[in-house]
Amino acid sequence: MIRLRNVTKTYNKSFTVLQRINLHISKDEFVFLVGPTGAGKTTLIKLILREEVPDSGSVYIDKVNTRDFNENQTSKLRKNIGVIFQDFKVFNRSIYENLAFVLKIQGEKKKIIKEKIDTVISLVGLEKKLHLHPFQLSGGEKQKACLARAIINRPLVLLADEPTGNLDPDASWEIMQILSKINQQNTTVVVATHDKHIVDMMRKRVIALHGGNIIRDQQLGKYNHEP
Amino acid sequence: MIRLRNVTKTYNKSFTVLQRINLHISKDEFVFLVGPTGAGKTTLIKLILREEVPDSGSVYIDKVNTRDFNENQTSKLRKNIGVIFQDFKVFNRSIYENLAFVLKIQGEKKKIIKEKIDTVISLVGLEKKLHLHPFQLSGGEKQKACLARAIINRPLVLLADEPTGNLDPDASWEIMQILSKINQQNTTVVVATHDKHIVDMMRKRVIALHGGNIIRDQQLGKYNHEP
Amino acid sequence: MNLRVVKFLFEEAFISLRQNVLMATIAIMTISISLIILAVFLLLFFDINSAIGGVSRNLTIVTYLDKEITSSGISKVEEQFALITGIKNVEFVSKEDAWKKMKDKFKYQEDIVNLVQGNPLPDSFVLTLESPDKIEDVAKELKLVEGVSDVRFGKEVVSKLRMFVQVFNYVGLSVVGFLLLATLLIIINTINLTILAKKFEVEIMKLVGATNNFVKWCFRIEGLVMGFLGAIVAIVIVDGIFSFVTYKIHMVFPFISVFTQGLSIITLNIFLLCLGLIIGLIGSSISIKSLLKSILKK
Amino acid sequence: MNLRVVKFLFEEAFISLRQNVLMATIAIMTISISLIILAVFLLLFFDINSAIGGVSRNLTIVTYLDKEITSSGISKVEEQFALITGIKNVEFVSKEDAWKKMKDKFKYQEDIVNLVQGNPLPDSFVLTLESPDKIEDVAKELKLVEGVSDVRFGKEVVSKLRMFVQVFNYVGLSVVGFLLLATLLIIINTINLTILAKKFEVEIMKLVGATNNFVKWCFRIEGLVMGFLGAIVAIVIVDGIFSFVTYKIHMVFPFISVFTQGLSIITLNIFLLCLGLIIGLIGSSISIKSLLKSILKK
Ligand SMILES: Nc1ncnc2c1ncn2[C@@H]1O[C@H](COP(=O)(O)OP(=O)(O)OP(=O)(O)O)[C@@H](O)[C@H]1O
Ligand SMILES: Nc1ncnc2c1ncn2[C@@H]1O[C@H](COP(=O)(O)OP(=O)(O)OP(=O)(O)O)[C@@H](O)[C@H]1O
Ligand SMILES: [Mg+2]
Ligand SMILES: [Mg+2]
Questions:
Q1: Testing the interface with D: which of C62, C186, C253 to mutate, by most D Cβ within 10 A?
Q2: Which domains can be identified in chain A, with CATH numbers?
Q3: pTM for the full predicted model
C-alpha cells in the first residue's frame, strides 16, 4: 500500500531529516512509528500525505508514484487518507461542521452526512460535544474529534500522528482498539507515537527512526528507540 | 501559595466542570494533577492563571484573592506565573522572539534578554532551532520551547499542562528533572498529565480529579484516576 | 458542478462569513463606502454634464432677413430651413417685435432710442440647434439661403462653452476613471484581507482533500456574497442620500431642478449591483488564487 | 513610559508588520488609495473655488456722473470714492471713450448709431470691488456721492454668481466632508481587519502577562506606522499626478492656468501626512480596544 524508495527529505536545504529511507507497508498492516523527538515521524507522515515531497526518491501509494501528482490527483489521494494531525488542524467551527466538511467535499447527501456523523461521534464518545467549537473542548476531546474526522470516510490509509498525547491511559487504550478494528476492516494504519505502554501492549510492527535512518523494523515489536 | 476555596466552574451556564473544589498547594510543592480527559485539569490551571474566573468560591494566589483583580493586577499575576499551555500558544514568530517577548514586557534590557535566552535554550537543548518559526518545529521541540518560555522568568509558580504529551520517554524524563530542579529553586510546580509512568516514578503529591471533584489527594502518590 | 455542490458552496460561504462576523461586516461596510463614493461622483458627473448640455441646447442662431422681404419670401426661407439638418426649432421674430425688445433693452439709453425714427431693424428667425457642435456648418448653410441677409451667433460663447465642455469631460472622465480604479482596488484589497486571515482554514481544507477548484469556488462565492451585500447597502444609502439631497436642494433653491436629466437612479443601482458582484467575484478569485499558490510553495 | 519601552514598542510594531508582510502591504495600499481620492477632490474643490473667486473679482460697478460735471468735480468724486471701504480699483472712463466703445459694440446697428448726433453719454467711473459680497451696500454709498447721477452693476450676474457660489460650496463642502468621512471609515476598517487577524497573537500576549496598555500601544504604533507609510505613498503619487496633470493641461490648453491659486501642494502634503498618522492612531486604538474587550468577554 505504502512504499518509500530511497526517500531523502531535507529542510531549508541544509537540515536532513530523512536519509535514503526504504520502507514497505502492505494493505492490511498496523504499524507503529517510533523515535525520539525530531526524528522525522511527522515528516514521514507528511510525505505519505504529499504535504511534503521528497528531495530525492519516491513515495508510492497503492503502487502509484506520487511525485508527479498534480493538484487534482493530490486531492484524490488525500480523500482516501484519514489523518490525525499532531497539532489537530481543525476548523474554528463546531465539531459537526468539521466532520461534515470532509463528507461534503465528497459530494455526500445531507442525510448520509448526518448518519455518518452520528455513527462516528458515538464511537469516540463525543455526542454531547458535537456542537461545541474546538476551543471549547479539552485536549483529549479535540484528539478524539480528530480521530472521528480521520475515520468518518472509511479511508484506505489512516495516519495517526501522536493520537493519544492528550489522553489518559484508559482513553488511549480505547482509541487503540478503535484503530485496531478499523485496521481489520481493511484500512492500513500508521501510528506515530511516544506511548511506550501502548506500543508494548499492542505487539504490532514497530518501525524506529533515528538520526534520519530506520534503525529497527520489527514485527510484534516493542517500544525502544535506542539505537 | 495557591489556595482554592469552594471553587465551582460552569461552562455555558449548564456544564459544571469543577464543583466546590478546595485545595491548598504550598510554596515548595511539586504537584501532579491527574484525571480522565475532560476532568477539568486545564480548567483548574486556567482558574489559577485567572484566564477563567470561578462562578462561585475564590482562588487565592500568595494569599490574595484574585476574584476582583483588575486588568493590571491580572497582568502582574501572570508575569509571575510560567505556563506551558496544552495547545502551546506560541506566536507565529521565531522561538527567539517568543522568548524575548516575555522578557520585553518586563522591561528587560537587550543584553540581559540575550543572556537569559541563551541559558534557557541550552537547558532544553534547542540551540539549533532558536531562529526557526513554530511551524518548522516538531511537536516535541515546540513543547520544549514552551517549557523554555515558561521558566525563562524564574516564575513563582509554574503551571505545566500536559508538558510531555509530544515527547519520548527519555525527553519526558529530562523535562521532569528540569521541573524538579526549578521546584527546588523555590517555584511551586503544578503538572497536569496523563503520563502514568512519570507520575509513578516521581513520587510527588498527586491530585486526582473526577466528575468535578477531587477524588484523591496523596503525598508520594501514584497515577490512578479510578474513583 | 451539480446543484448539490452549488448549494453546498453557498452554505460554505455563509458558514465562513459567520465564522468571523465582525470581519465580514467590516469588509462589507468598506465595499459599500467605496461604492457610495463612486456613485456620488457618477451622479455629480452626469448631472453637471446634463446641465451643461442644457446650456448648450439653449444656444441660438439669429438669421436676419432682407429688409425688403415679402411674407411669401419669409415662408420660402422657412421652407428652406426645414431642409437643413441639425435645426431643432425655428422661431420667427418680426421687425416690430425686435424693435420693441431693443427699446426695452436700451431703456437707460432712452435718449439714443428716441433719436431713432421709424424701425431700423429687419425681420429675423431665431433658430435652436439640436447640438452646438455643428453650429458653424449650419450657419454657413443658412447664409446661402435666398432672402437671408446676415447670420449671427455668439461665436465667443460657443468657443468658450466648447472649451469648458472639453475641460469638464477631460477632468470629469479622468476623475470617474480614477475613482472606478480606486474603488476596484479598495474592494479587492478588502476581500484580500479577509481571505488572508483564513489562511489556516484553507490549509486544512487542502489537507483533508478539497480540490483547488472547490476551495476557489467557496471563496469566490464568499466574495460574491460580500460584494452583493456591500452593493445592496450602498444602493440603499445612495438612494437615501439622493432623495434627501433632492429634497434639500429643492427647499433651498426651489428654482433649480437637479438630478432630472443626468444618470437615472435605476441605472445607477443596477450598475452598483453589477459592480459589487463582479468585483466581489474577481477580488476573491485573485486573492484565493494567490493564497493557494503561497500555501503550495511553503 | 521610558525610552526603552518606546523603542521596544516600535520594534514590536515592525515585527508584527513583518509577520504578515502581504497583509500589511495591502492595508497600506488601501490607506494610500483612500487618501489619494481625498487629495484629488481637495485639489479640485479648492481650485474650482479659486477659479470662481477670480470671476467674482472681475465684477464691476459703473458710476455715471452728472452730464454737466467739471473736471474738478470729477476729482472731488474720486476723492469721495477713496473714503468708501471695499473698493479695490477705480478707473475713469470719459464720455468720449464710452461713446467710442458704444459705437464699436453696435457696429451692426450702424443705422441707429448714425442717427444719433453728438455724444449722448456721460462720464463714468468703473469700480472694481475687493469682494462682490457687499456690492449692493457699496452701490448705495456711491449713489450718495455728489456728482454721481446713476450707479449700475449686473444685478442679475451678481445674484446668479452668488447662487452658483452658494450651490458650489454647498455641494463641494458636502462632497469633501463626505469623502473625509468615507476615507476615515475605509482606513479605520482596513486597520481593523489587520488587527482582527491577529486576535490569536493578542490572546497570547495577554496570557503571558502583557498589560492592556502595552498591547494597545503595540498596535497603536503599528497603526501609526501603517498610516505613515500609507500617507507617504499617497503623497508621492498625488504629487506625481499633480505634476503630470499640470503639465498635460498646459500642453492641451496652454491658455488656462490651473492649480495656481487653489490649495498649495505643500499644505496638501502636510495635511495628508497628519491625516494618515492621526487616522492610523485612532483606527488602531478603536480596533485594539474592541478586540481586547471581546477577548476578555470570551
Ligand atoms: N518546515 C520545516 N523547516 C525546517 N525544519 C523543519 C521543518 N519541519 C520540520 N523540521 C525539522 O525536522 C525535524 C523533524 O521534524 P518532525 O516533525 O518530523 O519530527 P517528529 O519525529 O515528528 O518529532 P516529534 O516526536 O517531536 O513530533 C525537526 O528537528 C524539525 O525541527
Ligand atoms: N469554553 C468552554 N465552553 C464549554 N465547555 C468547555 C469550555 N472549556 C472546557 N469545556 C469543557 O469542560 C470540560 C473540561 O475541560 P478541560 O479542558 O478542563 O479538561 P482536561 O481535564 O484538561 O482534559 P484533557 O485531559 O483532555 O486536557 C471538557 O468536557 C470541555 O468540553
Ligand atoms: Mg511529530
Ligand atoms: Mg487539558
A1: C186
A2: 1-80+155-227 (3.40.50.300), 90-154 (no CATH)
A3: 0.91
